[in-house]
Amino acid sequence: MSAADWWSIEILDAEHAEISAASWRDAYAQTLAESLITNGASSWEWFAYSWGIVLEVSFADERGWAAWRALPGTRAALDAVPDPVSGLLVHRGHGGASGSYVPRLPQVDPAADRVALPEPA
């Protein structure tokens, strides 16, 4: 599978919502999984983060994704997220975090080798 075959649905927690993103997943995961199976999804996986939930879905082609996305059950589930206005992100590719933080190693300033050091006495 190439990266273009993956789609991400990110559901963010909202302070003013009555349910969390995790509760939304608990309510809709089985329905979404059944529709993914019956509509030809190659793979899917749930990820939990401190800020919400990510569902990554893979289809063989974009038409499969569009057909699944247009299903009434899929649309109803996405309409029921805790914050449907600003708490739902749907995009192509993998979602969530971009990986763990790896700090840069300290480097010598490029001009440091140009300064003459005093001769030892």
Automatic annotation (TrEMBL):
Tree of life domain: Bacteria
Protein name: Uncharacterized protein
UniProt source species: Actinacidiphila polyblastidii
Lineage: Bacteria, Bacillati, Actinomycetota, Actinomycetes, Kitasatosporales
